[in-house]
Automatic annotation (TrEMBL):
Residues covered by the Four-carbon acid sugar kinase N-terminal domain: 5-226
Keywords recorded for this protein, A-Z: ATP-binding, Carbohydrate metabolism, Kinase, Nucleotide-binding, Transferase
Family: Belongs to the four-carbon acid sugar kinase family.
MF terms (GO), sorted A to Z: ATP binding; kinase activity
Gene3D superfamilies noted in UniProt: Four-carbon acid sugar kinase, nucleotide binding domain (3.40.980.20), Putative sugar-binding, N-terminal domain (3.40.50.10840)
Residue span(s) of domain Four-carbon acid sugar kinase nucleotide binding: 251-402
InterPro entries: 4-carb_acid_sugar_kinase_N, 4-carb_acid_sugar_kinase_N_sf, NBD_C, NBD_C_sf
Protein name as catalogued: HPr kinase
Matches recorded under SUPFAM superfamilies: YgbK-like
Domain of life: Bacteria
Amino acid sequence: MTTGLLIIADDLSGAADCAIGFAGAGRRTVVTLDATSAGTSIDTTATVIAADTDTRRLTPAEAAERTAAAWRALQSPGRRLYKKIDSTLRGNWTAEVAALQPLAGLAIVAPAFPATGRTVREGRVLVHGAPLESTETWQLENAGRDAGLAALLQAENLRTEVLSVDALRGAPDALREKIAASASNGIQALIVDAETSDDLNALARATAAMSEPLFWVGSGGLARELAALPNLFDSETLSARQVAKSAGAILILVGSLSAVSERQCAMLRERAGVAELIVPPAVLREGADHPTWGEWLGRIGARLEAGADLIVRIGRDDAFDPAEGAHLSTTLAALVAPHFAHLDGLIATGGETARAMLAAVNIGSLELLAEVEAGVAVARPGTAPLPAIVTKAGAFGSEHALYGAYLHLRGAPEPERSAAATVAAR
């Protein structure tokens, strides 16, 4: 019987969105920002531990080393492994899987997340039916690269095989036998096609019941199906816990430059009347050395100290380089940190931004409580009194995601809209 699960993710929002399903199923679930020394800073008796290794921007070799170190530091008898990867295959995930495979067995590679439009067909990721290679996300960081899962894994010298969706939809015993045969034949990474949540559920049920050494490699989609299994863990479930309603200022911190995030901010401004400040990248590049740094500190502080809600996000200019994302997020957090004590709630969009903000105010772990919508996790810091915190990946979620998170923190129902407004929104 499985006593617990370790989720290793390469960024904070990914760790939270992958683990939140287990919290919703009544399992005590914590996220740590310090994967290799978490044994002394986090309650390892939690059923589910999600470790953010912060490896998205490292070299593949560095990411592989840190990921393997996290597993060695946090593994325990009966605790199984889930390597969380981005559903659009960003980051160093193949190097990380290659580092874990000799330690944990057969890699069950299933990045599909049908609830968010990500599916896998013939070993290739589709985003709302379109090939991953055609998306803005892939072109921004991987232009010209083959996005086929087999090609990516074989570049790490892993022996691969594709498990068809037909196998998932067949007899459960036959599915388990096929997976076991792959492992016996020397396959190291089994790539799984999946087009629906039912496909992932079949995979979860089959692999959870197997005794062969294996670990899961997936996004939040497969994790949710594992979380829904009633007998996955040998531990009792907990009653649902709620975060206290936020009465003071709520800060929405947006480090993502995706079009999705922009639309989410627009809905929050429109429906909740939240003011917005867009910080120029030039200010963040220079930090405290920029001549207007003090002015930005004052503008942000004046609103939050007055108890006013505020969106603060990174702007875009012609000099923007995706590689500077971590630096901009760290400087954005430094701009906000002096005013953190005035917050009653924080919504952070973008894994790098969320991590930078928590690190800036010395929050090393979170306990996950609830989910606003797929991928939007509500948590409370391990130390009280501190504000409730919501994390969300940048290019992720519906247009309603930030507004829904804001209403959740306020403990308020969504206001009814007039028929005319509803038609206009369409």
